[in-house]
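Fold it.
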Amino acid sequence: MFHLGWFLGSGFGIQPGRGTFDGQAWRDWMKPRRYVEMAATLERGGYDFVFIEDTAMIEDTYGGSAAWTLAHGEMAPKNDPLPLVPLMAAGSKHIGIINTMSTIQYAPYTAARLMTTLDHLTDGRAGINVVTSVTHRVAQNFGYDAHLPHDERYGMAAEWMEVVTRLWDSWEPGAVVGDLDTPMYADAAKVHTIDHAGKYYKVRGPLNTIPGPQGRPVVGQAGNSVPGRELAATYADTMLAMGHSAEQMKAFREDMHERMIAHGRKPSDLKIMFLVTPMLGESDEHARDREAQRVAATRDPHHIEQILWQLSYISGGTVDFSTFDLDARMPDVLGNGEQSSMRQYVVGNEDKTLREVVTGVRQISDLGLVGSPDTVAAKMGELMDEVGGDGFLLYQPRALNARTLSEYADGLSPALRRRGLIRDGFDDVPFRDNLLAF
């Protein structure tokens, strides 16, 4: 069996021209029932978790203005993901909720305390996706003149995770006594300062709340560069990875297992979830028609501009792709942002024009998962057999409405279950235990 997760934008995907939620997303994308119903639907479909992305800025690199961003609702507006965690958990019983927290937005003590609180409020279903943030614009909202260089911010993140982990461990098992006669609520001999003094942080501790049901929340990581892989190998329970072929996915997984062993961990302690955008249809023909429509749309001027906007963003706000000639060679730039994402567009495409790249390269692959639920389920099983595990993180940029979600939870999931590929229920245990059950 393998695991399923759902990748969710914290703005719920409201972009005009790319579908809306029941035709009303621009008005009510922030309404609580949308999130509650989504969690319940995905839990019904056997999804282990919802993975909520986030970024705290309004992008204005493309064209030197925020006009395109705001006109098209690209990555703005957004909900803060943290309050969504107990909200989505309240409408479900087992599914884990992973929210994104940036190491330049949250001090380690604040993050450790917030996540422990969320773990309590969700009965052990909270998770944290640790990111370093991509652009200068995020950094400038949190006291920086410019963002740190790519590798340095991962060094900062490694220290951040060390501090947060030590804070989560600052209460020993058995520290809470609960003796009302002595009285002794907690044994002071088992609650410790951490006295951390490093390059980026100075934190005394201990945490002033008791450990949550999981001890520490599930930790996710999404960086696929070498520093990102090292951070995941050291701390993560699950990891978002880009999948483009069975061979590449298998090599990525083997690389991560080697890194985990080097850090004294078991490979089975990390679930690598490959991000994918299947194209489902009522039949194989219907799915192929949908895919043909998607491919045709890549030549549309709006789509081209959207990818140019995206490249400007993932460059870290360092490169404005509106300034390049579409029919000139693809610029050889990586920027200071999502370098592994930029490499997908740049490396191997040096002889193509920018127009060919933006109309032909897919950042998130469908991995050939195009067809009816039965067809896609069979292909997913074949892929996982070849890769060796651990699962898929599904993302759907089309209209995110009740029907779309039902295609996955009530169409694809039953087809996967008939083949014994995904869970048919959850044990009544915390999120991490369900995640590591197989």
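Residues 12-21 have pLDDT under 50 and may be disordered.
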